[in-house]
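Incident log, entry 3
Record: Aspartokinase (416 residues)
Problem: checksum mismatch between cached and fresh output.
Input:
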Amino acid sequence: MRIFKFGGASVKDANGIKNLAKVLETTGYDNTLVVVSAMGKTTNRMELVIKNYFENKHELQSSIHEVVKYHDDILVDLFDNKRHQVFSDVKTLFDELNTFFKSNKSPDYNYVYDQVIGYGELISTTIISHYLNEIGLKNNWVDVREFIKTDNYYRRANVDWEKTQENISSQLNARILNITQGFLGSDANNFTTTLGREGSDYTAAIFAYCLNADSVTIWKDVPGVLNADPRYFENAQLLHQISYREAIELAFYGASVIHPKTLQPLQRKEIPLYVKSFLNPEGSGTCVSKEKGINPTVPCFIVKKNQTLISLSSLDFSYIMEENISEIFSLLHLYKMKVDVIQNSAISFSVCIENLFDNLDKLLQHLKAKFKVVCHNNVSLYTIRHYNDDAINDLEKDKVVLLKQLAQGTVQVVTK
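Fresh output:
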């Protein structure tokens, strides 16, 4: 049993979907589960739909229409007959979306987000499943929400592993080609939940763990895991082999190729993860497994943009001790801030965070009641694994360094 995951870039248009079919024909597709994300930038478009629902209702239908048109254009390119069942199935999904907006009574943004955002995945997999059947690659369309069960922590739900294992073991026919959605699950009330942005990789790992899969392959538009994002760094190199431990470190610090939660369930059962190019399916790519270290051993660069650096100091020059630090972390948890770097001295405490839930102003107001607060918005956090002096010097060139922290094997630098 193999798990394949295709991201939005791989299925952004009709040619991408045709290429997905070629990948399956090249690699084989028996005993395969294919996890697919929303097409192209659909998730971003759906986030605009949600924003308009709350803030700009007269633009709501216009933003929905943009999503409809994008998918209609792909449908017309893939299917000659407009009476094909796929057109009706996709229309039904958009009708469901509009019905939700008309009937919803909840003011909870996170709840609404999760009920709406997943239509991108539901529509993409519906189109792909029909297309594969049309060209002779018979498959079963699977609603992932019937299998992956979670709590109701909307937008970042936690998996109920026992119920999920039971559902997958008892209900999924693993001997055939299955097509399902990434990113989604459902809670005890069958409301849709999401696993966090980029959660489709995690979906693949959940199925792999529950099915004792032979491998997971993530198909990307890059040849494998690189030592740096080529959008920000020149001369990025392919890493042929990475250990689970090293990959988890890279994911923790923000490497975009592998989702941070993806690797833990694979490591538990020693299921290898391959990252390969959907443009070159026969290429070797990168293998993540129980082997040691990385190959080749080179500095690995990671950058996270649009971060916030908060520096705190006591109002009376007293020490920032355990009690203060405990209170700071309680507030960071309360306002759902993702902490990337911390640094403290006797009378100061700095933290670099991601403002994922737009609660920064509330957090700052709370902190200013007890501390002197300096806040730097839109900073960049750079991390170098296996650094050397040349790597650090090249990184810091022509940048204003706000915070720098070195540990064995890793350096982190916050810059303006």
